[in-house]
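Section 3.1 - Work completed
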Amino acid sequence: MRRLHSWIAGQRGQAVIEFALLAPLIFVFMFIIIDFGIGLNHRVVVTNAVREAARHGATGASEADIQARAVAQSEGLVTEPNNVTVKFFDTNGDGELLPGDAVAVQMLYSYQLVTPLAVIGNFWGSSPTSFEMNACTDMRLEQVWVGATITLGASPCE
């Protein structure tokens, strides 16, 4: 009976040691999955906000309206219109902005890690705490805003 009792107690001790060795690894993988999922969601939201703003700009909206649309569609991720750049491009090279030319909208967004993954990563060296998730979309103009100025060069989205 004593042998059985000591054998069971030894098994419990072994399980505790195995858990203590594997738990940090499990938590790190869990943090990676959580941050990756949230980061991917934010990337989709920012990309959609830029696409919606470019579509709004293609229908003849002003630069301020395009920036406001991008900020409104970003679901609170981007709050400053200064983080949204709007440029109009003369794609056919005739020196005028006409329907068929392009509007490009670019949004700057920095994703901050949610989990303590960066703190854990600092034990093995430098670990980033944020990632740049900048999105850019250009669309063909259907209507041209009267106050639009031509930007020389190619679209930053290419």
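Second construct:
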Amino acid sequence: MDYSWLSDPFYQGYLWEGFINTLWLLLVSVVGGLLLAVGVALARIRGPKPLAWLVWAFTTVIRGTPLLVQLFFFYYGVGRLLEGIPGIRESLLWPLLRDPFFFGALTFIFSVGAYSGEVIRGAMLSVPQGELEAGRAFGLSGFQVLTRLWLPRAIQLCLPTLTNEIILLLKSIPLVSTIALMDLLQAANIIRDETFLVYEPLLLIAGIYLATTVVLTLALRLVELNFPGMRPTRRRWLSLR
């Protein structure tokens, strides 16, 4: 195994840029996707029927088509259509709309929103109605019941599943290398082309992804343990009672 190329600042720059883009893409997609997921869940449960059917169609299409196809659709399809709009190239939005990071983040936000939205919807339907009625009995408004009781209780129920969704999202990010976005896989491909090394760059980014997954898993596990209602009670080895 030859890793002498790691000392070259030129290749270090590629790897560092790819790693930073990967983390930013993960952060933006998780935050935007979970916000969309809450809206999807509420629309499916409490929204008017036309909106509920529209959201159902959205989640069905997103969950029923490959993520790579969605990425190509937004980048090569929607992106090309936006280029044809008169005056778009001179607008302030053009630097954003021509950036592959925007289309990658948009694709992942829709994916997280569709999958996690159904997870949150199921969790909200699993919250006992007695808890919500107790909140109303204490004089809480409908919005307060939602934000203080219903939604936190649902997140508590589905938090382990949402954690798995975030881990799966991290492992889906290498797909953006197909739309010329510099991520870890794209950096490895460039290094392979220039050094003619096949395995070493791929093994390196596999190790980086593995280490990142372990750190992310531990961090999300801490969130689960410290989330209200999720901290397990400590058991004594010898009970005095």
